[in-house]
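dude i think i finally got it to work??
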Amino acid sequence: MNRYRITKHPILEIPEKNIVAFTWNGEKLTGCDGEMISSALFANGIHIFGHHHKDNSPQGMFCANGQCSQCLVIADGLAVKSCMTPLRDGTVVQSVEGLPKLPEDDSIPQINEVPVKDVEVLIIGGGPAGLTAAIELGKLGVTTLIVDDKDRLGGKLVLQTHKFFGSVEDSYAGIRGFEIAKILEEEVCKLDSVEVWLNTVAVAVFSDKIIGVVRNNQYRKIKSQKLLVATGAREKMLSFPGNTLPGVYGAGAFQTLVNRDLVKSSNRVLVVGGGNVGLIAGYHAIQAGIEVVALVEALPQVGGYKVHADKLKRLGVPIFTRHTVTDANGSDQVESVTIARLDKHWKVMPGTHKTFEVDTLLVAVGLAEVNEFYLKAKQWGMDVFCAGDSQEIAEASAAMFTGKIKGFQIAQTLGIDVGPMPKEWDEKATILKSKAGREDRKKPPLKEDGVFPVFHCYQEVPCNPCTSVCPIGAIRTENDEITGLPYMVDLESCTGCASCIAVCPGLCVSLVDYREDPEHPLVTLPYEIWREHVNIGQKVPVTDIDGAVLGYYPVEKVSTRKKYPGTLLVKVKVDKAVAKSVVGIWVQERQVEPSTIYEKEIPPDDAVVCRCERITAGEIKAAIQQGVRDMNQLKALTRAGMGACGSKICRPMIWRIFKEEGIPLTTVTDSVDRPLFVEVPIGVLAGVK
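look at this
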């Protein structure tokens, strides 16, 4: 096997896979049958997939989701996105050097009539929202077709190794994302009226209300009475010099590599973006055996859940708020990343630069709705619905519930007698989509005998699985609301079962047990990293909520729960004085210090905004300063947005530049979308076999 494969993981099982041979620029390599070509290349230590024809800049991978064209390669003579093209035995893969040549083929193709498939409901996207909608419709016998561009159902759930927030009843709280994907898939497969097309890319919505898709390189047409768009979100990008170097990629791409394809893509990473996506990606990196040197957030505080940030702090990851990335450095790929502090006007403060030696920069600065199919269908007057991140960016728990609601509403519009929708559904959806609320750092109980849990979650978020798993019903949330902070109704009633610790998604519950030795109580902690770091008898560094090491104490016992096998329950004997403050176990004991020398400051206008055409921020600013207020004119003048991705990546950054230049966005004309939202070989559209 390749040296960059992940061969052990604290949460994920390592499956057996068929090994196949392929060539890369004539060199014989091996990979796993059916995995994406990009993952096979990464597993062989290859991160540069070619060089751009304009400036010979190295090209690698950014999104791993088919949204950009950064990972283009030539496979068996055709230019393809390596992140969306499966590897097969004998595949001949070549790097793209300059402009790819068209394949030489003088044969006369056989043109075939493309059939039209009629269904009651078409769902584009087999992620959390699409699956729960299909389940609602399938239970009612509605003929439903799900199309998804991946080789398995689940969407981003497949990439999530952490336990979910929300409630046990409505959003599988306490269960890991990839396990939820399997549960939903099994439910869908039981429904006779639901059909699934995998490896199927939706490419366009036409004025005759036909949806065009490409399934296993064959073009198909679908006509549905109702259309549900559940296509999720795409990652946003930052503008800074070096932002297109191989090694700079979205957090979702990173999770795809390490959690779905089990490829160790990096050795040392820096994360920019303190929302839940960035915080969780940092945690996943540590689980995969990758060092996280820091997380950077421009706001005064992280935007994601505090418990996610606390997990990173307790594992030894420093979080720099009011900081941003100024540039990524390296010739062919990332070798270091420089950050700097921001003042109250969001300007970089001179003399505050720090440079970290890393090989990867994870960009997690927000998501944008993939809603072009919905907007175009609305334009053509179709009966179309939208759910999940395509409708509104929120947590996957919210996406599952909104999918359920949309499935119910679609059934109503089909004339099925389902009665009125329960009024509490909308209320639950609103709660699950809510952002983190107020913080209230409560003091631990004064009690110093017996056994009882200490709750270290001090921020209101929609989460209450601990109330569901307590066998004696002794845990409640404030005002009995899902966002209320948890507490024990009666500390004396606790049996010490530790179920609340095992289920907690935030890993923010500890169990203090004074029964054996009141002066040196046992504290049970949740732990999801490496088992060899917590061997019995080993002294481990334990931390408080902020990641400060409280001391080194011996491990007395390690156990687990059958229902939550990835969460180890580690019993540590500690001093009485720190017992109620202990929250976690420090993993990254070696402090990662930034370089003290910052040798250069690259002008920010050198940052590439349009990856496909290599158009810089400076070029776009110059056009705006000359009076351009139309994105279509900007495209004609600079080629920004003219590349293969169809402006999916650069458009949000261009809007931001207009705003930074002081141009009212109401005076700017948006660009016209292409008829096809995804690139398709013309022969496929013609039905060529």
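The domain at 116-233+369-432 is CATH 3.50.50.60 (FAD/NAD(P)-binding domain).
im so relieved honestly
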